[in-house]
Amino acid sequence: MKNSLLLSIFILISFPILAQIELEDKLIGTWKVLEVRYISEGFDDLDEKETEEVKAALEAFEGSQFHFDIDNSFHFDIEYPDLNNQELKWELNKLKNRIIIESAIDLKNGIYLEIEYLEKGEDLFFNILDTPIIMRLRKHPNN
Question: Which domain of life is it from (predicted)?
Fold first, then answer.
């Protein structure tokens, strides 16, 4: 009886950890953006400058690539200078279905990007929090 209780506790504790490890392993590699969408719900009040920034980001993300390395370093292949030349790292928050991208050098600056993700088949859907941008990505076949 005592052994089965200990086994049950071990399984309950291990399952979320194993699920996170599995997703981290799947995430490692290069992901290509296949589609970028603008969602207007909740973003009706953007001023002209913000609208132009969103349009520029939408164009930049189209066809870009996200690189999640095994050592948790991260980089973009994107036509957007502010995002391309940064030393970044990534962290997975499985409980919130989020990927946190932050500076690998200057930890005082906090979170650089916070991405909500949804896994559907072989695609990942990214919603960059606090923006009207949703992307559909697929892992590069050489990974």
Answer: Bacteria
pTM of the prediction?
Answer: 0.75
18 exposure class (CB count in 10 Å sphere: 0-12, 13-18, 19+)? exposed
- Exposed / middle / buried, residue 58 (Cβ in 10 Å: 0-12, 13-18, 19+): middle
Find the helix or strand (DSSP H, E) in which 95 lies.
none
Q: How many domains is the chain built from?
A: 1
Residue 74 is part of a domain; what is its CATH number?
A: 2.40.128.10
Domain residues for 97?
A: 2-139
Cα 113 to Cα 130: distance, rounded to the nearest angstrom: 9
